[in-house]
Amino acid sequence: MTRFTAILFAALLFVNGAAAVTLDMPSNATLAAEDVARLDSYAMPTGPWTPDGFPILTGTGEVRQQAWQVKASGLTTLQLVQPLTEQLAGMGFEVLFSCKDIDCGGFDFRFATPVLPTPAMHVDLGDYRFVATQRVGDGDTELLSILASRSSTAGFIQITRVGASTSGPVASADAPATRAISTPTITGDLAQTLETVGYFVLSDLTFQTGSAQLGEATFETLDDLAEYLVANPERTVALVGHTDSVGSLDGNIALSKRRAGSVLERLVTTYDIPRRQLEAEGMGYLSPVATNLTEEGREANRRVEVIVTSTE
Length: 312
Known about the structure:
Layout: E1 8-16, E2 19-26, E3 29-45, E4 56-70, H1 77-90, E5 94-100, H2 101-104, H3 106-111, E6 128-137, E7 140-150, E8 155-163, H4 190-196, E9 199-201, H5 220-231, E10 236-242, H6 249-271, E11 278-282, H7 295-301, E12 303-310
Parallel strand pairs: 10-11
Antiparallel strand pairs: 1-2, 3-4, 4-8, 5-6, 6-7, 7-8, 9-12, 10-12
């Protein structure tokens, strides 16, 4: 796997009132295509495709669509989408809908959704994810969607945004080499947070040192998560492991995925949660919430999150 560095640069620059906001992409991502309509509309899907079509939310204003390519093999669509979704949550965007290929509606969903042409944007019909978000503030409503897929050698991310006109360049390769990590560590009431934010940090989990084995203790967050999944049998979630930056990326991704898998098995065997509601993924050190330069920051980065992947 090509090494994914921790350096980030601006992917999308837009305004919310007077405050400019940047959405960051990995440093080995390149802007492959961009289309801007100064005054147009975007019908953003907010549910899966059915024989009657899909529900939409229409926004009017400047419509800006970008296609980004991430040169790395072996990335999953969740690894591409989740860091961006967490950034958006930190900026006040609400996730209205998220889905994965067949749950979106497969072929029909893909071809009813505006997609920039190949080779800039590639969508594997059997391996893509879509996230629809909205932010309302200062008299303006912004709609922003993310569509991610991959090939054997690269990841592909399309960002579509409609709202007030942007100012300044959309992307810049001259951003600082480091950035402050501002994504919040989401804790508190699990069920409420999952319903409003879409993800939650299982902060009380413990693993044996250097191991993927979950400790034998009873964990309150797993009790709460199991209760949530039983009460919402239509929900599916991803358990996503994260590490600090010590060691290789490949090794950290493997360890973080095994830890997420250990949590999944505990939910299945101890709480009788159906496997169909669960998946396990590992991000390694690709999505930190704190600096890796201090022990406190590295400890915060070693975590397992639960992410709502379908609300239908």
